[in-house]
Design a protein that fits this description.
With 527 residues, this protein is α/β, with parallel strands linked by helices. It folds into three domains: 87 residues, Archaeosine Trna-guanine Transglycosylase, Chain: A, domain 4; 144 residues, Rossmann fold (3-Layer(aba) Sandwich), CATH 3.40.50; 232 residues. The strands form six sheets. It has a seven-stranded parallel β-sheet with strand order 20-21-19-18-22-23-24, sandwiched between helices. Strands 1-2-3-6-9 form a five-stranded antiparallel β-sheet, with no helix packed on it. The protein is globular. Bound molecules: calcium ion. Calcium ion binds next to strand 18 and helix 10.
């Protein structure tokens, strides 16, 4: 096997050997990343007897000692590749110098062998949320109009523009009106096994905690994804599926103006109900926080992701649910995660999700190495192994309590693996099946946002936070420069989550109204 028999535990305190010039994560590592924004120049002395042999840009790797051809190259105490040439100490270690290891074999993993002991519970943390009939709590109070098919999206968008200008000002306790539009619903093999994924995703989004868990649906009439299929014949709470207070079928009406008027009438009734709701103190245990990274760089795994991991541990201690996702960014670190499963069934479910995705990628004649982007590589990440080792740090150090498959609603508390693709907007869409708060780390930067939940963006580098002060909510780059510790930033993230969930603070994505389109994952055939 390519990996160590005793895997590096993420619970071990990560050893930060910090000088102003480089960061080595683990004592065993043979490479470190350059911290200074200008990089280092040939002949620069980094201390500890290390001298740069050439110019190396920020976030890229320097060889800490001589590496022979065939030697493993270690970062995070793990093998990120084998050298395909002799690499003198002080050299720039680049992608083309590494042979990527195979992914950890799925039939040789330890199952629930190192289950972390729960840390002391954090009592008394609350936020001001909206209580829902199903026991969940909203972090916002939104009128969401669900659609069964893309064909109706422009009509609903038009209606929502009018609702916002003509009706919403009369309902001051409602935060927003959102058209829940998407690219699915027709022209697909609706009975194919893969169709279950987008359908259950859209069902759970339609019942989202931030829209009061009661959907208002706009359907076309002739589409494959009929409202009855979306909800299996009945609205939640036993309300009949038909009736224009709940479902508006466009093909039933005469002309566009009448159709829009029907949508406005239904919206007004819902706004009256939503407007009566008030924020109340609810336990932090009602938070369902989806974690994601996008535009990662080599700093992500040593600054923002460990800080988010620390916040994840705090959330778990406060009784909340924390979702980590992105199968292709977990696959190469799976040997670090199956030992942390709360029991063998959970470990096997993790393996099931990895295997399913391996097979899905193989059908498209690809594998997990297709994940990395030009931006990742510019940011110093050589391959998916290095990216995954930095990505899973977001999951902190708790036991993995449950696994949800694609689009499934998570009901467990604690740390949960919710399978999704790693694509930012597809992952976010899938996580919306469960989450009421989103935490997003980035190295290269993205203005990503979602309509239904607040998106808190955390930068891996201070340079990004300074370049985009009106998009990045929290700068974790201070960890690399020694201006803050992982724990400090972790607590800051935890407290910021509670403030945002209470509506007392706004994220930049909310401030600017940045709302990426929903993109349900559809592995099924299109007809
Ligand atoms: Ca992502």
């Amino acid at each position: 096997m390519w990996y160590e028999s005793t895997p590096f535990s993420l619970r071990e305190p990560i050893q930060y050997l910090l000088t102003p010039l480089y960061i080595r994560v683990h004592a065993r590592d043979t490479v470190a990343i350059i911290v200074h924004p200008d990089g280092v120049a040939s002949g620069d002395n980094l201390g500890d007897g290390i001298t740069a042999r050439e110019r190396i840009p920020q976030a890229h790797k320097i060889a800490l000692r001589e590496i022979q051809p065939g030697d493993p190259v270690l970062r995070y105490g793990q093998i990120i590749g084998h050298a395909n040439r002799a690499v003198p100490a002080g050299s720039w270690v680049r992608e083309e110098m590494l042979v990527m290891p195979a992914a950890p074999p799925l039939d040789a993993l330890s199952l629930a062998t190192e289950i972390p002991v729960p840390e002391r519970a954090l009592e008394g943390y609350t936020f001001e949320g909206y209580r829902n009939p199903d026991g969940s709590a909203g972090t916002k109070n939104i009128l969401g109009i669900t659609t069964t098919v893309q064909c109706v999206a422009p009509t609903v968008d038009y209606a929502v523009r009018r609702i916002k200008t003509e009706l919403l000002p009369r309902f001051p306790n409602v935060d927003d009106v959102v058209a829940i539009t998407h690219s699915y619903g027709c022209g697909v093999a609706i009975e194919a096994p893969g169709a279950a994924i987008p359908i259950r995703t859209l069902k759970h989004i339609s019942l989202h905690s931030n829209i009061g868990t009661r959907p208002l649906i706009v359907s076309l009439g002739c589409e494959k994804l009929q409202p009855a299929r979306l909800f299996a014949g009945e609205m939640p709470g036993g309300l009949p599926i038909f009736g224009e207070d709940n479902v508006i079928r466009l093909q039933d009406y005469r002309g566009f103006a009448e159709t829009v008027a029907v949508i406005l009438r239904a919206a007004e009734k819902r706004l009256e109900l939503l407007d009566r709701r008030r924020r109340e103190s609810v336990s932090a245990a009602s938070l369902v926080v989806g974690l994601q990274c996008g535009g990662s760089d080599a700093f992500s795994g040593v600054t923002c992701n460990p800080a988010v991991g620390y916040a994840a541990d705090l959330l778990v201690r406060a009784g909340a649910t924390v979702l980590f996702s992105e199968v292709t960014e977990v696959r190469d670190a799976i040997h670090l995660l199956t030992p942390r499963a709360a029991n063998q069934d959970v470990a096997r479910a993790l393996i099931r999700e990895m295997r399913w995705y391996d097979e899905y990628l193989a059908l498209g004649k690809a594998d997990r190495s297709a994940n990395t982007t030009p931006g990742n590589k510019r940011g110093g990440l050589s391959n998916i192994v290095e990216k995954a080792l930095g990505s899973v740090v977001k999951a902190g150090s708790s036991a993995i309590r449950a696994v949800a498959t694609h689009g499934e609603r998570v009901t467990s508390k604690g740390l949960v693996f919710a399978a999704t693709p790693a694509s930012d907007f597809i992952c976010g869409t899938q996580q919306l099946a469960s989450m009421n708060m989103h935490v997003f780390t980035t190295g290269e930067g993205t203005p990503y946002g979602l309509a239904l939940v607040p998106v808190i963006k955390i930068s891996s580098r201070t340079a990004l936070a300074e370049k985009w002060p009106d998009l990045i909510d929290i700068d974790a780059g201070r960890i690399a420069t020694g201006h803050a510790g992982i724990q400090d930033v972790g607590w800051e993230i935890f407290r910021f989550i509670l403030e945002v969930a209470s509506g007392r603070k706004q994220t930049w994505a909310e401030h600017w109204g940045l709302q990426n389109a929903l993109s349900p994952f559809n592995p099924g055939p299109v007809t």
